Amino acid sequence: MSLESLVVKLYEIEAVKFGNFTLKSGIQSPVYFDLRVIVSYPDVMVEVSEHLWKAVEASKTEFASVCGVPYTALPIATCMSTAHNVPMLIRRKEMKDYGTKKMIEGHFKKGDVCLIVEDVVTSGTSVSETVQTLNNEGIKVKDAVVLLNREQGGEQRLASEGVTLHSVCKISQVLDILEKAKKLDRDTVQRVQDFIASNNTFGNNIKRPADGMGDAQQKKVKKVLTYPERQSQCKHEVLKRLYGIMEEKKTNLCFSGDTTSFAELLEVVEKVGPYICILKTHIDIITDFTAENIHKLKNLASKHNFLLFEDRKFADIGNTVKKQYSEGIYKISEWSDIINAHIIPGPGIIEGLKSAAGEKGLTGKRALLLIAEMSSKGNVATGEYTKACVKMAEENQDFVVGYICQSQLSKDPNFIHMTPGVKLVEGTDSLGQQYLTPKEVITKRNSDIIIVGRGIMNSDDPATTAATYQQAGYDAYLEQCS
């Protein structure tokens, strides 16, 4: 089957679709590729694998094995392996908690070179993750082969990481073939071309040979959605409210009231309240805790329009955290809009906290952040742990609204990113806490909210200092939106 015939066939079985589709990032796209359907068309799957093999042969690439990016590329890699008698490795998306606990299945030795097989490449992230997992086992990766290159920066990103991408077909070719076959009209083709040109994932512009795209190729990428745009697209009531506060008060500042005195906390919050969107507390370090003080804190939150976030960092089994959240002297579920948790116990911790809110009649009015990354030196909240956090969040969007993290983990407006360890000047304290500036956090790490504690609490003038942080953070946000 010729490349032209294969592209038309993929269109006919709806592996290539045109219309309006919401991508994982939340972006509306006029084109969508669903190569998963080819498993129901064995003849097409064989043709796809053969086209990939020919691309590999033409590149003169040398390798000892192939590894398909899970999961869509696994059957394609299997076809290549069996048809050409080349060993295959399988990368797991998550480690088993029993047996050998391997991330890579199959026989290999350190130093082996493996070829990555993928169906579609947009940003190159999935390929990059597979490369990293293989590298962790001592397996080298120099090349990857893909059926469709969306020409949105993935090839450049992989090249920057030392991986050469070989593609059977680029999206510009797909559009050309389908237009000539009278499957697409000129308006649809132009709309997709403009979208691709305006949504590069690696740098501001897509650099490629002229293909009739004209000035659209030079469009700047809008890095982030505005707060109102995110508010209109997100689903959770608490997150909608937070985006509204951020827009109304023009702030992305969360103040961490790290003091052992409730009296001092109330005094400082009265001063900084006008400049913050969230107040973060550590209620269990308070020495003069009373229910009356909680009532006063809620009044301040109402007066100055900010959310309450108890930084409890739940980390136990579901049944235990359920009680820690709703019972005891603190009764956190009754007053804190947002809480956070480690995922070490597994998804049961989310279910336990969620059920506690539900039993109090607070479903939709309480939200959870997952601690995906930390700011302290030498912490182990990285790699597979962080990936597992993202996966659990995506599976629990009715309760999880974002992450405590050091960088952007998702472009979905249903998830917000909050970064601790922020000061006006970078540095490290005596206990290993690493500090970043508001500009670094917002514009370079693409986080959404800066968390500031001692920088404000230890200031001689908390109100003025909070206003300075509020302006720095919001200016960085405006820079992103421009």
UniProtKB/TrEMBL annotation:
It comes from Owenia fusiformis. It catalyses: orotidine 5'-phosphate + diphosphate = orotate + 5-phospho-alpha-D-ribose 1-diphosphate; orotidine 5'-phosphate + H(+) = UMP + CO2. Transmembrane segments: none annotated. This is Uridine 5'-monophosphate synthase. The active site is at residues 311, 313, 316. Bifunctional enzyme catalyzing the last two steps of de novo pyrimidine biosynthesis, orotate phosphoribosyltransferase (OPRT), which converts orotate to orotidine-5'-monophosphate (OMP), and orotidine-5'-monophosphate decarboxylase (ODC), the terminal enzymatic reaction that decarboxylates OMP to uridine monophosphate (UMP). CDD domains: OMP_decarboxylase_like, PRTases_typeI. Pfam families: OMPdecase, Pribosyltran. Pathway: Pyrimidine metabolism; UMP biosynthesis via de novo pathway; UMP from orotate: step 1/2; Pyrimidine metabolism; UMP biosynthesis via de novo pathway; UMP from orotate: step 2/2.
